[in-house]
Each structure stands twice: as structure tokens, then as C-alpha cells.
Design brief:
The chain is mainly alpha-helical and about 190 residues long. It has one domain: Orthogonal Bundle (Tetracycline Repressor, domain 2). It is about 70% helix and about 0% strand. It has 8 helices and no strands. It is elongated.
Length: about 190
């Protein structure tokens, strides 16, 4: 059901998703989805959890080549943008407005916490290596995330013209990440 919902969102958008239409597409009774999800918001929370799982797998496959802490952090922030460009439906649901998704779903809170925790561990590791400035790692995470998330949204929503193709988006992610990292580098005293 979650996979079918994701396909429907890719095809028609979040707003067009309904449990009854989903049941029809799966060839089951109109009430069958309600045995698993009592509301569309609950289903969307499950779709968001699947998006976080997909994102983690996407990142892990790219992190295999990155061995040093800074390389792992660069790879992660670039992969965030590339994941969004390659999986826009999942990305939109993962970061949907709070009224759209059941925010209190324990699995969703856990998936978000896992992703955020991993980013914090990466940032702290790079700080400990001395490659980026010391200070509150949460502020550094916010700087990275807000910049890269903004870029991801611009790509997903088709706001960057010639850069909207995933290959160009990947190049743009590397350039933007490099500029952000330039500002985060530790300075010699």
C-alpha cells in the first residue's frame, strides 16, 4: 500500500491521493486501506518513513567511497540534494507541511530523529578532526541543512531551469556544498 501510494503521489501529487482511489488501484475493497490507516495523514506518515528509509539507503551507498570525516559529511550533504532530485515524491512527503502528515506517528518521529542524529554525529566528527570550526554543532547543522534543503526544494519544484536535470543538480549540489564548507572551515589563529 505504501509503494502504491508513493507511485500515485509521483503520478498525481500528494493532494490527489485518497485511500479509496488507492484501494481501487490495488483492486481491493474501498474499506481495505482503512484496516491499516484510518486517515490519509497516517498513510502519508508511513510514506514519509519509507522516504527516510530510502534516503538512508541512498546515502549509505554513496558513503562507501568516503573514508575521512570531511569526505563523509560532503558526500552526505550532496547526496541529500541528489536524493531529492531523483525521488521528488518521497522528498515532498518527507518534508510535507505538518498538517499534511500525522506528525505524532512514532515511526516518523524515530525516522526523523535517526536522520538528524546521523548528521549531528558527522558534524561533531568533522569538528573533532579540526577541519571545520568549533562551536555549537546544531548551528552548523542548521547552516548546512537550510542551504542544501533550499537547493533541493528549488530543484524538485523546477525553479532552476537548466539545472533541474538530476545530473546538473548533482553538479550544482557539489558547487553549493563547497561554498558552504568554505565558510565552515576552521581558520588558522
Amino acid at each position: 500500500m505504501i509503494a502504491a501510494a508513493l507511485r500515485a503521489i509521483e503520478r498525481d501529487g500528494v493532494g490527489a491521493l485518497s485511500l479509496r482511489a488507492l484501494a481501487r488501484s490495488l483492486g481491493v475493497s474501498p474499506r481495505a486501506p482503512y484496516r491499516h490507516f484510518t486517515t490519509k495523514e497516517q498513510l502519508l506518515a508511513a510514506v514519509a518513513v519509507e522516504g527516510y528509509r530510502m534516503s538512508a539507503s541512498f546515502m549509505e551507498s554513496r558513503l562507501a567511497a568516503a573514508t575521512d570525516p570531511m569526505g563523509r559529511l560532503r558526500t552526505t550533504v550532496e547526496a541529500y540534494v541528489l536524493f531529492a532530485a531523483e525521488h521528488p515524491a518521497a522528498f515532498r512527503v518527507m518534508y510535507a507541511p505538518y498538517a499534511t502528515v500525522e506528525e505524532d506517528a512514532p515511526d516518523l518521529r524515530h525516522a526523523r530523529a535517526e536522520g538528524h542524529g546521523e548528521m549531528m554525529r558527522l558534524i561533531v566528527g568533522v569538528q573533532q578532526s579540526g577541519a571545520i570550526r568549533a562551536g555549537d554543532p546544531m548551528l552548523l547543522a542548521l547552516t548546512l541543512w537550510s542551504t542544501m534543503h533550499g537547493l533541493a526544494v528549488l530543484l524538485v519544484e523546477g525553479q532552476l531551469g537548466r539545472f533541474d536535470r538530476p545530473i546538473e543538480g548533482a553538479k550544482l549540489a557539489r558547487v553549493v556544498a563547497a561554498m558552504v564548507f568554505e565558510g565552515l572551515l576552521a581558520r588558522a589563529k
